[in-house]
Amino acid sequence: MINFETDVLVIGGGGAGAMAAYEASKHGANVMMVLKGRPQRCGSTITAPGAIAGVGGWHVPGDSPDVHFMDTIKGGSFLGEQGLVRIMAEESAEAILEMERIGALWERTDDGKTYALRMGGGHSFYRCTYMEDRTGREMLRALFGELKKRNVRILPDTIILKLLKEGDRVVGAAGLDMATCKTVLLRAKTAILACGGAGNLYLHTDNPTDITGDGFSLALEGGAELMDMEFVQFFPLGFCFPPSLKGALATIPSLTRLRNSKGERFMEKYDPGKMELSTRDKVSPGILTEIKEGRGGPHGGVFADMTYHPPGFIARNLPALYKLYRKLGIDPEKDYVEVAPTCHFFMGGVRVDENWQSTVPGLFVAGETAAGIHGANRLGQNALADLLVSGKRAGKGAAQFSNEADHAPVDPKTAREAVEYAFQMLKNNDGVRPIFLRNRLRQLMWDKTGAYRTETGLNEALDELDELKADLGRQSITLSSGPHNQELLEGLENYFMVATARYVIEAALKRTESRGAHFREDYPETDNDNWLEHIVLYKKNGTINMKKIPTDLRETNPSEEAR
Fold first, then answer.
1. What's the CA gap between 130 and 108, in Å, rounded?
2. Is the Cβ–Cβ distance between 251 and 304 less than 8 Å?
3. 165 - beta bridge partners?
4. DSSP for residue 47
5. What is the 3-state secondary structure (H, E, C) of 161-225?
6. Considering the domain boundaries, does residue 418 fall inside one?
7. How would you write 252-288 as a 3-class SS string?
């Protein structure tokens, strides 16, 4: 068994985890990060090409944090927690500046006096800072450089399988070092979950393969509450072809005109004001409608048109994607790229307060693993703003909590018991291979719990999910050797994925209306009279329970907006 001790334990290696670790170290805490992969090679942030929404000294006339706040609330169909949204709108600009102070580079205007800005879908103004099509990569480069200076310990290639508690409080975690296949016991005064979302629940996703819902399941099993799990966003612009890239992010909305097989710029029918810069819960259904009604392309998508830009524009602004286009034999100055919606982001997650602490003392949450900011639908470019602000808040809160707490004793036997099923999987000689179980789950979620949902389909999904859950214990691994066993890792992740699938399906069945990214064909209207409420999941006596709680309407509500 491998043993570690720290003040603040950060679980997750993307931008939210890195920001939380940086902030906690600034406040004097001893910090350790646990990553399922390698630094700057895991999590979703590294793949983020877009921009960071924030209204600072660079803002254009008419813009303000108040406008950003209202854009976010309206874009989330008034289900965003307004206290949290206000914090993001007020604090994201300072976080952007702090990133630059520690070494991140943002694009500037030709005269160099201010930031160049992008428009995100659903935003009213150009307000989003960026670096080419590698904004997330630039953030991680700066953050991990700073973590190295601060001697933050980083434990790579380790999957956390259980949070450890003493009474109600989190006191550590247990997991498996995938390089050695040894049990890992981490004692900590407090923990921060920053595990991203669960995009790999779906057949087509632009998420990296390590985004499998770990944080949601760890939190619920650890006594925390989950909220808004029915809201899963589908990004409109995923590759349709070649098959090896299906679902991967193909371009960004601000540089694209969408056309159907007739050459029509069809978003005029669905949102003539904002067109392709509408919210994703309007663009993705628009695309799916065009495909369903027979106006799609040969590979089941529609077409992203970037040919209207001047020569060299795409190569300068999307250099990494441009290089990929050319490898695929596509010239974006002349050719269209066929695209379709792909699973992108989970608006739901762990319920948190304004310090991003969960309902479990000592358990903080950051980034996509936390719920509250985005409501029923996330605006483009708000994800990176969210992870910076929530990471800062969670990191500071965890450091302060640890300053007032002591290490609690943890029985090593608890850690061994938490990972025993991993070793059992290696001993299974006859059963189901993890990849087969995963592919069946992903197809099920795509078919029954995707962009369009019905009561019948969701109930069928629950029935099949019960069969998949029964198969989890039958998973068997081709190689009995544990170290560096990717198939073993997939099998362990499948437990998180099956659990998270249930959270999504149960909440989607409960919400009998359509709102934001949750569209029920049998309940197509938004019902503000009955459903300005969150669905909260919690575990009691080994059973998942649900309750409804009112949404935070402290500043505005739909009826005020209508007036």
1. 9
2. yes
3. 170
4. G
5. EEEEEECCEEEEEEEEECCCCEEEEEEEEEEEECCCCCHHHCCCECCCCCCCCHHHHHHHHCCCC
6. no
7. CHHHCEEECCCCCCCHHHHCCCCHHHCCHHHHHHHHH
Residues 6 or more apart whose CB falls under 8 angstroms from that of 41 comprise none
Query: Rounded to the nearest 5°, which phi and psi values hold at 248?
Result: -65, 150
Quote the tokens at residue 479. 């190689």
Q: Which two tokens stand for residue 382?
A: 């708000």
3-state secondary structure of 158: strand
The pLDDT of residue 305 is 97
Tell me whether residue 303 is in a domain: yes
Contact predicate 159/210, CB 8 Å: no
User: The domain that contains 277 carries what CATH number?
Assistant: 3.90.700.10
Is the pLDDT at 5 greater than 60? The verdict is yes
Question: How long, in residues, is the chain?
Answer: 563
By the 8 A CB rule, do 458 and 179 touch? Answer: no
Instruction: Tell me what pLDDT residue 364 has.
Output: 98
Distance, CA of 451 to CA of 514 (rounded, Å) = 11
- Please list the active-site residues: 280
Domain that holds residue 281: 235-343
Residue 100 domain-assigned (yes or no): no
Q: Is a pLDDT exceeding 60 seen at residue 563?
A: no
The answer on pLDDT for 561 being more than 90 is: no
Residue 277, domain member (yes or no): yes
Helix, strand or coil, per DSSP, at residue 129: strand
The answer for residues whose C-beta is within 8 angstroms of residue 147's C-beta and 6 or more apart is 18, 21, 22, 25, 33, 154
Q: How many structural domains is the chain composed of?
A: 1
Upstream peptide bond of 242 is cis (omega within 30 degrees of 0): yes
Tokens 């291979």 found at: 433
H or E stretch including 488? helix 486-510
Distances (CA, A) of 493 to 55, 90, 532: 38, 36, 33
Given CA atoms 54, 55, 60, 64 in this order, what sign does their dihedral have?
Answer: positive
Cα–Cα distance for residue pair 281/270, rounded to 1 Å: 11
For the chain, what is the mean pLDDT? 96
Helical segments of 318-358, H only: 319-327
